[in-house]
Design brief:
Fusion Protein Consisting Of Minor Coat Protein, Glycine Rich Linker, Tola, And A His Tag, Chain: A, Domain 2; 3-stranded antiparallel beta sheet
């Protein structure tokens, strides 16, 4: 059995001299952000215009071994309650790839809506 090398100079126990595949650590925060999606999808155009240029949203989920969110929270001082409800609904419907080791697992992430113009964009 030959495995794909992720770390050079490490030999497989199955075949002497064969490289070993070492998987990258799982990005639970990235999975959480992907499950919730873009903030702008939960905010109307009129509400977006009234927001500060940079909005931070803190996400927290407790996930079971099968990938179900058993408890979740969304916090942001800048977003209207309707947007927070929308994001909470997305979080409640979220599913993580199973299995989730060491469950229940508390996962946190921050999502940012940055409306500041880039140097190439006029105000």
């Amino acid at each position: 059995m030959v495995r794909v090398a992720a770390q050079p100079n490490t030999e497989s126990e199955d075949v002497p001299g064969a490289p070993v595949f070492v998987p990258a650590p799982r990005d639970y925060a990235g999975e959480l952000r992907a499950n919730v999606g873009e903030i702008a999808g939960c905010v109307s155009a009129a509400e977006i215009a009234a927001l500060p240029e940079r909005v931070e949203v803190d996400l927290e989920a407790v996930v079971t071994g099968s990938g179900i969110v058993s408890r979740g929270d969304v916090r942001s001082a800048a977003l209207p309650e309707s947007a927070l409800r929308c994001l909470r609904a997305r979080l409640d419907a979220a599913r993580f790839t199973s299995p989730v080791p060491d469950a229940p697992r508390r996962i946190t992430a921050r999502v940012v809506l940055d409306r500041r113009p880039t140097p190439a964009q006029p105000r």
